[in-house]
Fold this sequence. Notes:
It is built from 2 helices and 30 strands. By secondary structure, it is mainly beta. The two termini are 35 Å apart. A 6-stranded mixed sheet has the order 1-2-26-25-24-23, with no helix packed on it. A 4-stranded antiparallel sheet has the order 4-30-29-28, with no helix packed on it. Strands 5-6-7-8 form a 4-stranded antiparallel sheet, with no helix packed on it. The chain has a single domain, classed as Neuraminidase (6 Propeller), CATH 2.120.10.
Amino acid sequence: MTRSGGFAAIAAALLVATPASAQQSDQKVLKGEAAFGDWHADRPGVRRLIGPQDMPAADPAQSASNGAGVAERPESAKPELPPGFSAEMIASGLYNPRVVRVAPNGDLFIANGHADQIRVYRLAEGRAKPIEKAIFAKGLNYPYGIAFYPPGDKPQWVYVANSDSIVRFPYRDGDLKASGKPETIVAKIPSGGHSTRDIAFSPDGKTLFLSVGSDSNVAEDMDKQPDGGLDAWAKSKPLGATWGSEDGRADVLAFDADGKNPRTVATGLRNCTGMTVQPATGALWCVVNERDELGDNVPFEFATEVKDGAFYGWPWYYIGNNEDPRHQGERPDLAGKATVPDVLMQAHSAPMNIAFYDGKNFPADYQGDAFVTMHGSWNRGARTGYKVVRLKFRDGKPTGEYEDFMTGFVISNDAVWGRPVGVAMAKDGSLIVTEDGNGTIWRVTYEDGRS
């Protein structure tokens, strides 16, 4: 981990780490090009609304390589939050904490990716202080997604998505360590490339969903046509299915709970890094890292309800009927057939996980909204992402608007201390957020709540 930015940068970090005040009130919604800012404009309460009509033309010549250096977190630095909210640190110095999921009894299960472990934290009631912590399972293969089965108060299994398989462990309420060896439920998931495999169960527990990201940026190594010809392939496969090195990838797949009866739910999702089920509707949602090297603001990242049988464009199209110039003329049969996602977000923000809020700690107007973590940009001249945003919903439907909720992770134009990844609502209604820059876990509460 490198130090970067000097004393001035650290001082700046401390300034932005104070609680937000009047910044949130009565702000206009930033639309179109006005929404294409960078980290300097990020603060709790800043709202954006981006539509398909706002998509600029692709400009590969504008593409930048601008990865952030990760600096040590200044000792007193905390994330910046809206008025009334506060963040307490649960843990720090972890090696690559990724997805966080909450067990029915309130324990926090953390996918410790590069350590090949699942960690468990049990917190003191109403506090961020762990009273017990343990390694639930180890010897995994870059674990990411975690799900409890069956859904509800008394799960009997913990499912874990490795980069190449789904396994499950026996589980009883309160277990801090797996009582048995892993049972392989789904073997031979395509490995390599994008390695974030997330999983979720349908509310009735009958369907296990799995997201598998692409092997590449934009199918550069995929043959122009599949064996047997394109016409035959298109007739026998789901709409927009890829082949060769991308066969079975950039998809959301489904299985029975025992891993049998595999099927494709949706295609053309370059890297669906996080999935969840919307409590109000039972619909499956995912957040997607779109492709790189088409310019600072192309294409938009997105969150969307995953519609059965839908094709979301990758690699031939993006955000509807925008044809990728690197695949020009290759799939005229798919023109006009790509589903437009529900919520569009700034290009290259790298959304990672999504969680809906239906707890009792936050103010009432947060009910039914969703939180999305953003890992941050590398393919953009002006840095963006590195924050947690709130997606606005009304009567269970997205408005398309999103709002900065948790910021302050960026130190300077060259360095950040935090890269948000995991997000989950705790049993007491607080929000749990992981970031893998300095390996910290945070508990966010509202002062007037009952956490």
